[in-house]
Amino acid sequence: MDSLKHDEAEQEEERLLTGGLRDGENDGAKFTRNPSTAITHRKPSVWKLCSAITVSLLLILLLLKTSPLETFARWMPSCFKGTGVAGIKDTGGLYLIGAGKADITGPVVEINLMGYADPKQLGSGLRQRLRARAFIVGNIEHPNERFAYLVLDIQSGDTAIRYGIVDALKELGPEYASYSHHNVAVTGTHSHAGPGGWLNYLLPQITSKGFDRQGYRAIIDGAVLSIRRAHESLQPGYLSVGTTKVLNANINRSLFAYLANPEEERSRYNVSAGDDGTVEKDLTLLKFQRASDGKNIGVLTWFPVHGTSMLGNNTLVAGDNKGVAAYLFEKSVRGEETAAEGFVAGFSQANVGDTSPNVLGAWCEDGSGQICSFENSTCSDGRSQSCHARGPFFRVKDEGASSCFEIGKRQFEPARALYDQLNENPTPVWGSLVKSFHTFHNMSEFTFISNGKKVHTCPAALGYSFAAGTSDGPGAFDFTQHDGNENTTSPVWRAVSYLLKDPSDKQRACHAPKPILMDVGEMYTPYQWTPNIVDIQVFRAGQLLIIVSPGEATTMAGRRWKEAVHSASAALFEQEADSARPASMTSAPIVVLGGPANSYTHYITTEEEYGIQRYEGASTLYGPHTLEAYINVTLSFLPYLGARATKPPRHEGGVYPPDNSNKSLSFITGVIRDGTPFFKAFGDVVADVGAFYRCGEHVKATFIGANPRNNLRLEDTYAAVERLDLYRGKEMWKRVRDDADWSLVFRWRRTSEVLATSEVDLVWEIEDWAQPGVYRLRYYGDSKSLGGTITPFEGVSSSFTLV
Ligand SMILES: [Zn+2]
Fold it and tell me: What is the pTM of this model?
């Protein structure tokens, strides 16, 4: 029997999910490799034709004296249909737009998960594939003026990853020559549930036992593929931007530090009991709508909430709550008339620093039933280890998966409502300008004037509270705590800990009141431990400005940064006489902050929060004036975003951060071989499914497996659910779930080191909307021989009935 492609099957599932069959899509967009050709072809034909028809229709309507807009809308030419109203409402300026998505899932087993810095937290499988989502915006008249904003389901942007992406784009030839450091932003969703080992600096490599080239390449290759897909889809279109409130999806996990900010400042954001200003509740959404047929090709959103819904005991790879939100959004529009095929939803992180998705607060799991101390998140023993923050479904013992799905859903739902609203009532991005700048700035000794005072930053250092962790992941940095157990200490730590040195008096004074635990910014052997050279970058499309932050700015730090950019850019806009901007347009800038991006510079707090020295303050690398320094440099480059700026600032002659990807330590061993137990073959079922299931139940099959690191199966799957269907009178199995689906879990475990045997569990957590029918589970594996040959195999469970 044949198998249908998943897309087809999924679309059908989706129609069931979203209610009712929809009309067939008319995908009018043809991919055009050369954006300039696309413009010259499309603009005159579409625009001249539409304008002519519009004018004629208006004349007819005037003659008939039946002027309501609805009447007009009914007779609109097809080129203006799609949203139904785009032709008659102000659509704003015409831009060059593109969106693309690709798989970046690295090794899902045996590699340390990045984020909680717990060397014992090793991957054991996959809940949901990780994605790169790319969004490109360009100037229609000057297509070289464009930017590419990447949203990766990883912990943060990174210097080695960024170099890898920029270099790979260069190798794609002249068509990709307009992408480089100044206009490519590499942001991470801050998921704490992805494989680590790809970061440029030594410190985050310690818990992952060093650098892992396989995962590093997966991220770069997927990120570049997503940019290529976005680039190939470039075409004229409109941008629309709006803001909505996301309630009950984030709280402030460092309220004690937040309260150190001036009362007067805090009160400006205290809107209501549900939005008291201690975290930002606003989600900003940018909608990409192509001009050819009015269909939307994607959305890009910003909202701050930590990717720590999947807890520190989770060992399944997933994109955390942002990954869920993106997945739900993309599923929800599939098959809809207003959404183009391949619609991409990017849920980018914002000023995430002091936010937590664990909205029920931090509690002591020591039997006391107490909440953790307000000042320093400790419990009765004076330590933070038993303090754990609770997500909405904390009672479900599933390593945070239920809470994670819920927090993703709480972001998706208001974003989707805002999208619908923008379809009816677009609030356009005006003008035509697309500008960007990027600079590498040395933070180790930067002197500048702030509030009339001469201040300076210092080489990076981490304070004592860094080792204590947060209520989202308490005290996980146990590489600093010698318990004498060789097995729980990273081999990297054993190799480098003797290099740690005491900070100088000057360094201590510079970081005060931070007590220095690790003077990481002054350590260059065997290579740098943390960045001193940071990326500062801002993008502009019309009145929208995107600050690309390399660190995790806290709620108030992000606000100060955004406000500084807002007032400076408002002044800049006033000087602009942009012909593409109608007189009705307000010149007020809309400013968002995305990150952690480009490099990982840990946290960015306000000076007042820094004085409190909780985890975020202790992890603010460059001293008390870190935030002011970021703002100062941002503002000094802001004129590069003005209408008169012709070129972005040059990097040549300036400082560059090191690329350590070729000299990083690694104690990560590869797969040696895979074996099977006697009388068994790869893919054999060792524990089969039952005969009947109901929605809400879990169906599981166990197979003789092999190490999934043998083949990452990028753009493909390890696990599948197949349904028996009739297709053109013939019975056939259709794939209806795969690794992209949250409800299908792939788990791998080693059963014997000596025999090199392993087993795989596939578990389908049957959704309440799943269709009754006959199903089976299929496992795709790849085994490795001692000689190194990799051989694919499959395993299939018995069929079962969902009643
Ligand atoms: Zn964080």
Answer: 0.89
